[in-house]
Write a structure and sequence with these properties.
Blueprint: H1 32-41, E1 45-51, E2 54-60, E3 62-65, E4 68-74, E5 84-99, E6 107-121, H2 125-139, H3 143-146, H4 152-156, E7 158-164, E8 167-173, H5 181-186, E9 192-195
Antiparallel strand pairs: 1-2, 1-5, 3-4, 4-7, 5-6, 5-9, 6-7, 6-8
Length: 220
């Protein structure tokens, strides 16, 4: 079954104490579809948690199915030893550097999502398989059916967790700089936005790949 990119238990984000913005509240999104869009367009999330009394933040791959976020890691990792992991997951897109006339008004155009919750260990074999497929297909649609599937040894070495997207916030900024009227009138510096974009390059063959392998359609 392919990941469900459309279904949701709610069409709006329901702010909690942890997901209510304290500053720049006008930048908050209320549509759950915006949360899904930020997650679906990202490739790396940052997983934050507390271990041995100290904060830990790790970058990792992920995949979304409806209102469930799937995460994975090594069963040998010290932070993935329990059945539950209280955590915070963030995904951020940098869309531009905002150059203002005054350095205190420099900013960034961005879209960011923050998800709070308790990730649960996935133990059901069918859901584990589905979760790993979701992560792989998120990185490159079509890759799961092209490459070899995990074998029992690899599955045993992989921890899979699911995180509900119920408690989440989205914040974004777009547009030109917000300069003071006095700085605009003084006309002393250039102002505007330098766009930042992430693009995929041309696929590069592995050095040991035989020449008879053409580029697969999902990478074309």
């Amino acid at each position: 079954m392919p990941p469900d990119r459309t279904s949701s238990s709610s069409v709006t984000l329901s702010p909690s104490t942890r997901t209510t913005l304290g500053r720049k509240r006008d930048r908050a999104a209320t549509d759950r579809a915006e949360l899904h869009a930020v997650l679906d367009e990202g490739l790396v999330c940052h997983l934050g948690f507390v271990r041995d009394g100290a904060p830990v933040v790790l970058p990792t791959a992920y995949g979304r199915d409806g209102d469930t976020l799937y995460l994975h890691g090594s069963t040998g990792a010290r932070y993935l030893t329990g059945d539950e992991l209280p955590c915070c997951v963030t995904v951020t897109h940098l869309d531009g550097i905002v150059h203002a006339r005054a350095v205190m008004h420099f900013s960034m155009n961005y879209r960011s999502a923050v998800v709070h919750g308790v990730a649960r260990r996935v133990t059901d074999p069918d859901e584990r398989w589905h979760a790993l497929r979701t992560v792989v297909e998120h990185l490159t649609p079509g890759a799961w059916d092209h490459a070899r599937r995990p074998d029992p040894r690899e599955l045993a070495a992989t921890a899979v967790f699911s995180l509900d997207l119920a408690e989440a916030s989205v914040k974004r900024r777009c547009g030109p700089p917000s300069d003071d009227d006095a700085d605009v009138a003084a006309d002393l510096a250039w102002a505007g936005v330098v766009p930042v974009r992430t693009v995929s390059g041309t696929p590069e063959r592995a050095p040991d790949l035989p020449e008879h392998h053409a580029l697969p359609p999902h990478l074309g």
